Amino acid sequence: RIAQIVERLEIGGLERMTVDLAMSYRAAGHVPLIYCVCADGPLGKAAREQGIEVRVFGKAPGFSAAAMMQIARALRADRVDVAHTHNAVIHHYGAVPASLNRVPVVNTQHGLGTATMHPRLMRNFRLSMPFTDAVVFVAKEPKRFVWDANGFRQDKGHVILNGIPLEKFTARPAAPGSRPNRM
After folding, report:
1. How many C-beta atoms lie closer than 10 Å to residue 12's C-beta?
2. C or N terminus of the chain, fewer CB within 10 Å?
3. Residue 126 half-sphere exposure, CB side, CA atoms within 13 Å?
């Protein structure tokens, strides 16, 4: 049972990747769950339509110990085996509750946006590292700017290059020049 933990499921690359990963987890024989710390979104509906369970915790702006406890209870009730958080902004909302349940934690850092972390966000991220088993970066540059430049433990930081499913693009190959310009 793998719980991915995100801020919300609005339209975006991180969110699309979360839903795609959940479907891949299921295809590999795992039970995927998606926890939205703050709110749902259009991709939450898409995930549910694919049979993926989505839980929304409704955390308001600002720090919330109550949300952490809700997530800790959900991880325990759902018997989660791995918690997979996305980005630094909500990582502590997964890492700390998972550690209370002795659940391994993997964090994915998406893109170069993580390179310009607000000092408070960087502090929270750094404080969450003892509860984090691995951090995956989707490209080499974010790892260099965030991980290497801030002296994090090298054995916890990894790069797995980001990719997308190609089937929907290869099913309809481009035919340049087959239609007139729309300009």
Report:
1. 14
2. C
3. 14
Structural tokens at position 137 = 């970066």
Give the pLDDT of residue 115.
59
Determine the pLDDT at residue 114.
62
Determine which helix (DSSP H) or strand (DSSP E) holds 87, and give its type and residue range.
Answer: none
Burial of residue 65 (number of CB atoms within 10 Å: 0-12, 13-18, 19+): exposed
Please list, in sequence order, all residues whose beta carbon lies within 8 angstroms of the beta carbon of residue 30, skipping any fewer than 6 positions away. Answer: 1, 2
Spatial CA neighbour of 35 closest among 66, 79, 4 = 4
Structure tokens at 25: 């987890």
pLDDT tens for 37-95 read 999 999 999 999 999 999 999 999 999 999 999 999 999 999 999 999 998 889 999 99
Residue 88 or 166, more confident: 88
Give the pair of three-digit tokens for residue 91: 């990582």
CB 90, CB 6: distance < 8 Å: yes
